[in-house]
Amino acid sequence: MDDLLQEFIAETQETLEALAGEVVAWEADPSDRDRLDAIFRFFHTVKGSCGFLNLPRFERLSHAAEDVLSDLRSGQRSPDPATVNAVLGVMDRIGELAEAVAIGAALPDENDDLLIGALSADAHSNSVPETDAVAAPAPEQRVRQGGAQAVPRTIRLPLSLIDQLMNGVSDMVLARNELSRQLRERSGDPELESAFERLSTCVADMRDAISKTRMQRVDRLFTAIPRMVRDLGRELGKRIDLTLEGGDVEMDREMVEMVVDPLTHIVRNSIDHGIETPERRRALGKPEVGMLKLEARQSGNQIVIEVSDDGQGIDTQRLVEKAVLAETLTRDAANRMSEAERLELIFHPGLSTAQQITAISGRGVGMDVVRANVERIGGVISLDNQPGRGLRIILRVPLTLTIIPGLIVRAGGLHFAMPRAAVVEILHDNNAMLRIAEVAGAKIATIRSVRHSMVDLEDVLGMEKLPQSGPRSIMVVRSGTGVPFAMGVAAVENHEELVIRPASPLIMASGVYAGMTLPDNGKPMLLLDAAGLANAADLPNVADDCAQRHIEEDEMNAAAVEMIPALRFEELSGERRLIQLSVIERVEDIDTASFGRSGSRAFVRLDGGLVPVVNGVHSFGAATVSALRIRDGAREACYPVAAVLDIIDMPLVPDMVAMHGVLSGVSVIEGEHLEVINPFALFAGLPGESVPEQARGRCVLADGDDGWTREILAPLLRQAGHEVVLGLPAGEPVDPLDVVLSSGPDLSQAAEILGCRVVHLRASPRPSGPQDGSIYRYDQDALMAAIAGVGR
């Protein structure tokens, strides 16, 4: 019986969640017979199960609601607002009773007769007419899920079992990673590696399958929204058109539970602060019905949830005035703040735009808690404010809490993990774009003229900073206060997909850790909490920081970073890079048939000549290819690219200098990390130009009738730019600058007679003895050196 009772309670609670929105949608459209039938079936099912399970209060309530809905289905009654309110009241009471049974608590001692009496038609006859009531019409709900879908076959499992399965497969992933590490350290065995690959594939498939059991549709987030919008709209006298999109998107069950409270708070704020009353909207020339839209979508490994309204937006001037009155912001600092910084004040504790304190809002406990809760789970919240026209709030949260991308950092000789979503930028402390200074004992890191508070992780955790030979890494980290801060660590060593587990209560109580993880090396690591680190370091908040940052920026205007024009382009291999605009002569499309290769050198036919190609010849997929024609003043080269994007300004010195190959480093442009081409290395890699020799003599081939001399040696010397004479000239003097080459008899003794130098070529690779001054005839380098030596 206990199992049956638990299953009944679980089904009842799930159905109630789904029906909360259905009742509101049915009230907006009373002609929707499908929704009316679904609500009727719920009460009919509850009534039928209660008699068997001996739940009399459930039975009385559901029976009374069933009778009223039966009359509505037959047309004997109409679904007026009072009837809908009574049905919702009965549903709420059944939900309270189900919750009490589920947790084993005493059933609430309420007077059910009042709820049942409110369902009768007589109870509504003396009610105030709807035209005189203050309550506004219910919101219209539009849900877009691509039409009706077949209901899949399902079974119900305890959540504890799902969590146990997930923990087990997480342990398998960690064990696989450890086995992989040990196999890499040992000599390879093809059969063993093949077996491991099969095991790894099976573990990955199992992890993905079990991960899906934790997934829930975002509908779970949306179920309570229509009812809340309806009730708040009636309470505040506002008319609201509610739109829900993306309910079929799936996310981790635990993540759904973590997002419910922030989303609820945001929706309540939109209704209370944002959307105006019908009278106010008429005066502003807006439709009387306000628009509220919730949209969910998946973007990579994130879920993006947007809440937008067409209300009045956020009055940033009122925020500033309240911050000044609360003495959290000075008037001078307020005057220096930009509009974006004023908007950030909405996340400052204790500030609210409400004119007066109500049961809904105005107590200053709000968006700061929302941001803290969102960032605690690795998410980000942003605002798009249009004063007078509305507000859009964007939440970006991870798809799952169990496996997240993370960075492995080293500090004090230990390793820690940091969620990758919390890190904005990483650079070394020897970067030319970084300046670290101490002011009154506090560290300040200035990166590209932007000032950040800075802490060292070792100092926050009370660890010793060990000496090291290389540069330290500086991470720009998002904090819970809305102001990014710089954090120094010994090194950022790796990035991995991390399996997150809760840490012990004693560790979590410190406030600087968000859990623990076990990476590939098998050594447990603690996961750092960015917001907790900022609080532990007592970093300044938005109001404190903005004024000082503007002062620092004013002082640095004279020492602004020198910028130069650059071309942003896409390589044929897909990378997006920068090259300074001054070395580009022009950009043009070139026929791919004009490209060729000779040995390791690539070239292209341009303007009747051959021009070297600096990045090799690729397999072009089209008839033409875009190319940069670059010049260093004297020489020209061709640089084929996939696409030319735009012209922008880039720092003369890259943000991160890293000389390797044809690259000089990395610059951050509009939030994008772009590699910078080094023109010096580009032209240095071109083939060297031949230097014409002054008064160079001829190459006289004494054995002009020899086949090898005539067919092999002579063409080689002509290609090298030498004038060739076949045979000793008869009756013609030999110029002292000439060189005589002989592959037959040794003419060294006749050098004085000839009046020039003589080079003797031998057929054997090895000389005949120590005194043999001949050159192997296929030793090209030695041959050319000998000719050049004679020429000099």
TrEMBL record:
Entry's EC annotation: 2.7.13.3
A biological-process GO annotation: chemotaxis
Source taxon at top rank: Bacteria
Residue ranges occupied by any Histidine kinase domain in the UniProt entry: 150-401
Record-annotated HPt domain positions: 1-101
Domain CheW-like as annotated: residue spans: 403-539
GO molecular function: phosphorelay sensor kinase activity
Catalytic activity reported: ATP + protein L-histidine = ADP + protein N-phospho-L-histidine
Key words of the record: Kinase, Phosphoprotein, Transferase, Two-component regulatory system
Sites of Phosphohistidine modification: H44
Cellular component, GO annotation: cytoplasm
Function comment: Involved in the transmission of sensory signals from the chemoreceptors to the flagellar motors. CheA is autophosphorylated; it can transfer its phosphate group to either CheB or CheY.
UniProt name for this protein: Chemotaxis protein CheA
Protein species of origin: Sphingobium vermicomposti
